[in-house]
Amino acid sequence: MAKKKDVILTREITKVYQMGEVQVHALCGVSINIQAGEVVAIMGPSGSGKSTLMNIIGCLDRPSAGDYYLDGELVSNLTDDQLAVIRNKKVGFVFQNFNLLSRSSALLNVELPLRYAGVKDGRREKAAEALQSVGLGDRVNHKPTELSGGEQQRVALARAIINNPSIIMADEPTGNLDSKSGEEIMQLLLEMNKKFGTTLIIVTHDPMIAKRTQRIINLYDGLVEKKK
Asked: Could you give phi then psi for residue 154, rounded to 5 degrees?
């Protein structure tokens, strides 16, 4: 069987933040690879560098040093505008706090990535189809305040998949949900991986969520913990 290609490859990634006169070393030489279609958990205590690593591999930020290849393309040195284009095309995000526009309907929230991508035709139909795929076909006109936490996360998931990304990054996607809603979101994420071969990266504190993945990357003090 042919080996799957690395969709994500980092080489000695570092990230240093300047906080006044103090330098904070969030990542201290992280080298990881994630293959296309893999389901991976990133775990570690608070301050370990999980969110920083997610922001870099999700093209929300750039490393201070080191190389990052996304689909074989060196992206660590790209401009913010170039990163935004790649992010919009290749990465879908699901956050713990949903990050929905409170005054907009579920349909309009899901349409947003299409607007950013410059899509003019069929936006509403595509957004409605995405909501249907996560079980919210009857909630398209509801605002987030009219939805439960689980339903809001489904809207966020529909928004994440609207551009058919090759990667979904989920930051504590079940953290603000009850156990039943959290299980439903995990099932949806895993179904997308199985059905479409979407690479799934989940940042989580929950060992039960991590066990559902194929591989766990443990971070500690900005470094990947080596297997003993």
From this structure: -65, -40
